[in-house]
From TrEMBL:
Protein name: HNH endonuclease
Taxonomic source organism: Flavobacterium pectinovorum
Length: 315
């Protein structure tokens, strides 16, 4: 999983872009009292822009206001219920009201806008597929998908919250689906914890047959293991072991250990930067903040580092 960096300017721009549309839905809602409508409008900035660790409490705060007799066990049964069960449930009118106000499906244009300000090129979860948005609100060609990290069924108030929308590919979005992620059980892309990162590795079986593995997997934190399992990271990357991994191993055996050093210090000295040379030779970004720009960047960087083709940058 790649991390996402908070950018307060992006958050403000996103809020300004959707604020009036949500306020209009609040005003037109037939379920809410006038006082609750006013409170929602007053707290809209918090709902849309608050940090990930603040979002669950905000959602629960307003669930209590929408459902005065709210009970967590009853709510859990409602969330897990079938469409028919939900429609007959006492909580349904209130939840319908929230879902109507914070309706993700009706802001298709804002998804283009969000993609434009985030400028993410590959999936946050797998770094395997491009998600770059092509086109605009009017000229729809191809767009990124957004996973709701706190799922919409359980956290309906957070359907449009900036830090709850994770740029992802279709495959990862389907794998995640409506699985219930919580901050104490799963990694959140906007919360960067160095202790919870993992590295790709490999196991050589034969000259042409190799497996992608996760380095020291058994000792990884539980959160990291769950993310690897949810998004089938090993399985997905092993599907590329006969191409992407094999190409990297071929490089190791076909070129001398100081091949890159020669390119950096002699061939392209004063012509290309270290980063540009790695991009030219391996088709990857080597700086972690730029991994998202090209598929497989993290995977290739980890494997090339293990093979000592890429060496730590000198101080």
């Amino acid at each position: 999983m790649l991390n996402l960096k908070e950018n307060s300017k992006n958050v403000r721009e996103y809020f300004v872009d959707i604020k009036s549309k949500i306020e209009d839905r609040i005003s037109k809602d037939g379920f809410l009292s006038t006082s609750l409508k006013n409170e929602l409008k007053e707290r809209l900035f918090d709902i849309i822009t608050s940090a990930p660790n603040e979002l669950p409490d905000i959602n629960l705060e307003f669930i209590y206001k929408f459902i005065p007799l709210y009970d967590s066990a009853t709510y859990d049964l409602y969330v897990r219920g079938s469409k028919t069960v939900k429609e007959r449930h006492a909580y349904h009118p209130a939840i319908q009201s929230i879902q109507s106000i914070f309706n993700y499906k009706e802001i298709t244009g804002n998804r283009y806008y969000l993609a434009e300000i985030l400028k993410r090129h590959t999936c946050t979860y797998c770094n395997r597929n491009y998600i770059k948005t092509i086109g605009s609100t009017k000229d729809k060609v191809c767009r990124a998908e957004y996973d709701h990290w706190f799922n919409k069924d359980r956290y309906p108030l957070l359907a449009l919250s900036f830090f709850n929308l994770i740029p992802s590919c279709s495959s990862c979005n389907k794998l995640k689906s409506n699985k219930n992620f919580e901050l104490d059980t799963h990694l959140q892309p906007y919360i960067n914890d160095l202790n919870e990162k993992f590295k790709f590795s490999y196991r050589k079986k034969t000259f042409v047959d190799n497996n992608v593995t996760i380095a020291d997997e058994s000792s990884l934190p539980a959160k990291t293991k769950k993310m690897i399992e949810t998004f089938k990271i090993k399985e997905i990357y092993n599907a590329h072991s006969d191409t992407e991994l094999r190409d990297l191993l071929d490089l190791r055996y076909k070129y001398s250990e100081n091949y890159i050093d020669i390119l950096i210090n002699k061939t392209f000295k004063n012509i290309m930067s270290r980063e540009e040379i790695y991009r030219l030779v391996f088709g990857i970004e080597i700086n972690e903040d730029d991994f998202h720009k090209r598929p497989f960047s993290k995977f290739k960087k980890d494997i090339l580092s293990e093979l000592e083709i890429i060496k730590p940058k000198s101080p």
